[in-house]
Each structure stands twice: as C-alpha cells, then as structure tokens.
What does this fold into?
Amino acid sequence: MSSRRTFLQNAVVGSAAVLSGEKIFAGPVKTMEAILNNPIVISTWDFGKAANVGAWEILQKGGRAVDAVEAGVRIPEADGANQSVGYGGLPDRDGRVTLDACIMDEFYNCGSVMCLENIMHPISVARLVMDKTPHVILAGDGAFQFALANGFKKENLLTPESEKAWKEWLKTAKYEPIKNIENQLYDKKKDPMPGGIKNHDTIGMLAIDAAGNFGGACTTSGMAYKIHGRVGDSPVIGAGLYVDNEVGAATATGVGEEVIRIVGAHLIVELMRQGYSPEAACKEGVERIIKRNPAKAKEIQVGFLALNKKGEFGAYCLQKGFTYAVRNNKEEKMYTPKSIY
Ligand code: GLY
It folds into this structure.
C-alpha cells in the first residue's frame, strides 16, 4: 500500500474516532474510495464542461460543495449564447424571459426562485433565499423585489437572437418540441427550426467537496414559449434537484412536467439509499416516466444524473443525445449516458 494510501486511511480512522457519538448530518468522509474520488463535480449537457471549471476552482481549494455549484452554474447563466439558461434564455409566449433555479446544501437547507425576471443570476438569489430567509421558495415579483433589495441589478435578459427566434415562432405559435435542442445551440446549421419551439434545457450540477459533503444546483429558463407563469421541475426541490448528504444527490433535465409527476430527483436519491447504483437509479426514474405514458415518453427527452456518497456517478435518459460533464482529480471528461430509445 502506498504511503499516501496509508496516510489517508489513518486520517479516516482518526476523524471518525473524534466525531463518534456526535449527531451530525455533515459527517466526515467514511471510505477510502470516497476520499480518493473527492472532490468531484458533475453537470448536465455539453455546457456543463465550462460550468464545472468554475466549480472546480472552489473545490480544489478545499471550498464547500454548495459554494462550488453556485459558482459553476453562474457560468451558463451569464452566457448569452446559451438559450436554455439565464441571460439569452428563450422567452415565454409573451416574450418574457422567466427563470427558475434552486440550490441545496449538505444540511437539507435549500432555496428556490420561480418565474424570476430581469435578474442575471437566479441561482444566487436562490442561495440568498436559503441563507437569509426563513423560506424555501420565492416566486415572481416577490423574488424580483427580494433580489433588488439584496443588491442585484435589473437587467434585460432577452438577447436579439432569442427575440428573433420568438418573433419567428409567433408566426405559427405551434408547440412542436425538438429534443435535445441544447446540443444544437453552438451550431446554428444544425438547427432545423430557428423559429420553432425549442425544447428547453437545464444545467443541473452536483458536487462533493474534499470534506465529503454534497451540494447541488439547478437553473434554467424553462420551456421556450411556455404560458407566462409556467414553472418546470428545475426549481422544485425533490423534482429537479435533491441532495441527501447521507446518500447522494440527483438532478434532472428535460420536460419538467414529467419529472415533477414522479418527483424525479428525490426518487433517485431514495433508490440509491436502497442500494441502486447511480445509473440504475436513473434508469428506474426514466422507466417510471415511460410507465405513466409510453406514447408521450417516446416524443420527449428526460435525463437524470446522480452521484453517490462514494463519488460514483451515473445517468440515464429517454432519448439519445443527452450528455454530462465530469471533473475530479482523475479526469475532465464528457460522458454520453445510455438511453431507452
Ligand atoms: N427541465 C426544465 C423545465 O422543464 O423547465
């Protein structure tokens, strides 16, 4: 056994002994495997790779997972070329960009904003809801006023490109979702329907820090051209995101209505508690969606991504095309999960 391994093993035994008998939620890392896998950050879609860079800066300095995921998802939130998250997100059918986001830490603390307009970083407003209020969710104008009162700037989030796409859509105003639109964003030639309904997508990010504690964040502009006021799964704790420091964390992407119906992220964490691997838990999640409505499931995308306490990760999706990004001490890599169809 290498001297590093011996040192780490002694460190694990030592910290467990110091803390024995105390009731804590955010316990020390318990296994050698976990120590060697941590820290780690994983996130949905190709744009997760750039987001992971922001998270990794914090994780590699020994920062908290919850701080890392907040910093990480702020990167796609500020990217105007990304039409499914934050600034530049495609608007609702009235031309209004409305954002949903939530965040959760290792103590079951959570914060969420729904249908928030004119604020570039909904994830940081959700973080303040978690840290500075007795509430979990703020919505609409209340969330906006709370953001202004806490120093956020009012900004126009509708980019000329997204306004153009919306005006094109208005010509027919048809709801014809395109699957996996987020993978076409950076290649306009592949976009078959610039004015068509964009199937939205989301960044969900999960991390374990060097201390073995979890954090998770999820943020989106939601379904393009939705009815004003529509909220998807992303800011719904348990649906778009769930973190349980004893077990693991999960997040979702795709058609939020289907994810909410099965309380997807919480389901996946509970399956991992029962011993499912992250990938097997995510597969069971998408199978529940198929079971409810097999015909519909063939037409939409939903993907789940999960991370367990050992630092093992996995994903599963309905349709081909979903990707996720991983960063840890061993790799910085994109993965393509298995799909049902
Ligand atoms: N999954 C994002 C949404 O449905 O809004």
